[in-house]
C-alpha cells in the first residue's frame, strides 16, 4: 500500500487556543530545565508562543516595566492639586497650574484630577441681553405663539 501524502506540514498550535493544562505543562518543562527549543519540538507549539508565555509567567506578580516616560508630577503634587480642586470648586485648571506646578500643562492637571474622578469646568457665559435684543426675542416669541407641537416637530 502506498503511503498517504500530505500537502501541508503539520500545523502548529497558535497561542490563543492553548489550554491551561498545556500552559502549565510548558511551565513545568521549563522549570525542570528543558530549553525552549526542546519544548517547541516536544509540544509542537510555536517557539515565539512558548517564549512569550514563559517570559510572561516569570514576570507574574512582579511590577512590569512600562515603556512610557516618567510622570511630570510627584504624588505629593498630585495630592495638593486634588485638595486645591476640592477646596475651591470655582478654580480653573489654569489657576491650579499657576499655584502649584507652573511648568506643567493644564492637560496634565486635568488627567491627574480625572484619575481621582474629579472634573472641573467653567460655567458657560450668558449672552448679554440689551434692550434691542430683548425686544427682538419678544417679537419672535409672540409671532410663533400660535404654533402647535406638530408644527415645531417638522422643523426641529
Architecture overview:
The protein starts with 19 loop residues before the first helix and ends with a helix. Among the domains are: 20-59; 75-116. It is an all-alpha fold. Helix 1 (20-31) packs across helix 3 (47-58) and helix 5 (93-99) packs across helix 6. The protein has helices at residues 20-31, 36-43, 47-58, 75-87, 93-99, 106-115, 131-143, 149-155. Residues 82-145 form the Transposase Tc1-like domain. It comes from Choiromyces venosus 120613-1. This is Transposase Tc1-like domain-containing protein. One of its GO terms (molecular function) is DNA binding. InterPro entries: Transposase_Tc1-like.
Topology:
Layout: H1 20-31, H2 36-43, H3 47-58, H4 75-87, H5 93-99, H6 106-115, H7 131-143, H8 149-155
Short key terms for the protein model shown above:
single chain, 156 residues, mainly alpha, 8 helices, elongated
Main pleated-sheet profile: none
Could you say which structural class the secondary elements and strand pairing correspond to? mainly alpha
Write the H/E string, N to C.
HHHHHHHH
* CA-based shape: elongated
Percent helix: 40-55%
Number of helices: 8
Sheet-strand content, in percent, reads under 5%
- Terminus-to-terminus distance: 81 Å
Amino acid at each position: 500500500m502506498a503511503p498517504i501524502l500530505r500537502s501541508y506540514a503539520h500545523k502548529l498550535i497558535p497561542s490563543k487556543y492553548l489550554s491551561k493544562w498545556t500552559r502549565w505543562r510548558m511551565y513545568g518543562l521549563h522549570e525542570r530545565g528543558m530549553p525552549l527549543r526542546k519544548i517547541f519540538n516536544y509540544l509542537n507549539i510555536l517557539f515565539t508562543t512558548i517564549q512569550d508565555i514563559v517570559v510572561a509567567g516569570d514576570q507574574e506578580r512582579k511590577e512590569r516595566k512600562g515603556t512610557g516616560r516618567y510622570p511630570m508630577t510627584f504624588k505629593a503634587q498630585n495630592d495638593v492639586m486634588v485638595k486645591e480642586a476640592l477646596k475651591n470648586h470655582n478654580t480653573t485648571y489654569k489657576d491650579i497650574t499657576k499655584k502649584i506646578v507652573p511648568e506643567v500643562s493644564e492637560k496634565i492637571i486635568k488627567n491627574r484630577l480625572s484619575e481621582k474622578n474629579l472634573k472641573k469646568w467653567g460655567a458657560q457665559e450668558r449672552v448679554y441681553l440689551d434692550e434691542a435684543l430683548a425686544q427682538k426675542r419678544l417679537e419672535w416669541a409672540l409671532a410663533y405663539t400660535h404654533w402647535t407641537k406638530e408644527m415645531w416637530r417638522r422643523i426641529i
